[in-house]
Amino acid sequence: MKTRALSKEAIMSTTPKSPILQSSDTEFTETPSKGLDLPDGVTIVWLDARANSKSVDDMETKLMLEKIHPSVLTFDDVRNCLDALSKISNKKSRVFLVVSGKFSTLILSDLNKLPAIDSVFIFCARPEIYQHLVVKYSPHVIDVFTEQETLQLSLETELNNYHMRIPIFNFFEQKQSAVRDLTYDAASFLWFQLLQKVLMETQYETSDIKHMIDYCRKHYERNPQRQKFYSDIDEFEKNYKSSDAIKWYTRQSFVYKLTNIALRTEDIEALYIFRLYISDLCRQLATEHKKLRIQNKKSPVLKLYRGCHMSSEELTKLPNTIGGMTSINGFISTSVQQWVADEFLQRESHRGPDAQKVLWIIEADCRIDGIIFAPVAQYSVHPEEKEVIFNIGSAFRIDSITLNEANNIWHIKATATNDGSHAFSEYMKVLRRELKETSEKVIFGTLLIDMGKYVTAQCYFKDLIERFSGSNHPDLSDFHYNLGLTYSFQGDLDLAEQNFLRALKYQNLVPLKQRDMVRTLNALGWVHQDSGALDEAIDFYKKAEYICEEKLGSNDLANAQTYTYMARYYLERQQYNESNTCYERALKILHLYFPKQHQRLGIILSEMGDARRKQGKPEQALELYKQAEAIFNDILPKHHPCMAYCWSGMGLSFLQLNNIKEAQSHHEKALQTYRHVLPPDHINISISEKNLKCIRYDLVIDSYLQVCSQV
Are the folds of 170-422 and 510-593 the same? Predict the structure, then answer.
């Protein structure tokens, strides 16, 4: 098997360089194995033979799309568009397709092969020809439009509706442990925990509020009700103070709407813009929670209600998570009055035709540390609702799920828990052990990388570099190192190397940065190894080893990473004895720092299995794979890429032993997990499909990408 890009596998290859990416600049048909990288949430795609023309009308349409939404792609060729849309790698991306009448029939006939398409808007001069498509392809086709103004209004309406119906729940099993390679939902939850901590501890400047106000005005500048929003924005700018955060939230004002959209879509750029307001709201809720604890000493447990609509897809996840945890992206509004939740459930849902009515019944004990919630009736324009708001990063244990058949409403009983805080503390403890003396700012971006949000992390670290360049900020080397990682994960080795070298330059200036220097040298080594420059790669690894030996001690944790990369180097050289020795050294160091059931140990045992198998020792390989499998079974959730990678290796080893039945069984298990956790066009899926059918070891494809973290 082949390892990739330092510790993550490069699953994203095409990064938009401007708000509009023209198809003429990107030959998607020439890279069929790579996915199209789109952000979470909606991207507007305009497909029209004139989409890239310079005519006044077409330029105005393009400008309109840009102004109402930040993520826009244009195509003037159906084949390129189909190819790109079929290879979207981000499972949380959705497409609003604006398409000409001529091209609409060609695209719509393939709609079942394009799961990322959420809504279709036909934009043409002769609506009578295409009007029947609205019914034929309902509910995907919204309508047929002939005027730019009506198209714009419909897009804005559907964008707003989309934000109302996107999944906002993160479900994860009780078995999920505090490891680096998290499932997406568990990582997303920890991300909100860390977001709260970073925001609460960050000092802000007066210019931050102006930046936020300017953003809000620009957001509403083309909205038909902009004067109403502008009036609220003017009032906010003139009168807002930190103690007003809850009041503005309960008003469901512009800041409530935009903050919730940013939180639900995990839009790092928007969250950065709203950081001052979000931090004020977090702090004020914490203050009010302290008052609640004092007032409710005799009756500390509150029974709270929340009505919501959930998709059938979300509900299907719930039975598997009874006893496990769920969190909601953002602040959570509840009430001590059940009638408030019941009244909400009577409203029309914007979450699609399969939306289900759900009543959450939550018990929350205000004595438990790490659970922040507060009554806000005194700040609300509707005090009779007796609203209670939970802070971001709140977690709930699901106790039971039942359907009230009389009114067809699901009842979910849950308990607010600080298990989430414990999971966060454990995650931070693991991360601190590996990344000593690292600030929350850096760890926040590191978690984005762990979630696979490479483009978001790239933007985040770029922004930090711009803000602190020219200063002596102690984290500049970490900013450049992590920015280099994001480039390497996307296959841009030149920019990766540039940032690693800048990180190294800063690290050379600070005597205490030797451990970081080791990581950077290893990164540079892997960049060279990945590009085929093996001699240069081993030079970097040996420099890293020397620093560990001389400055940190041969048993420092950083040296485990060095020996792992050296082992991979020797394996590629087919120098098996040297490779085995390096793996053994890395394993010995890891045993000094981690318990026997730690994921890092499982990963390296799996890699050692690869090495033995390539030496023609399948029995020894299987023993190592089984040790790794036992660790993964004990600590990882049901579907995890580390487990799939291990099963792939076991399948190959069984085929070496001519045990075709066991080989196929393990390839089948690996394939099912890859399909569950990786993008549909991921190379490991296609390799597994082929190896599943293979009955001779000399015909297998042995080029799986390593998909597990190895810091």
Answer: no
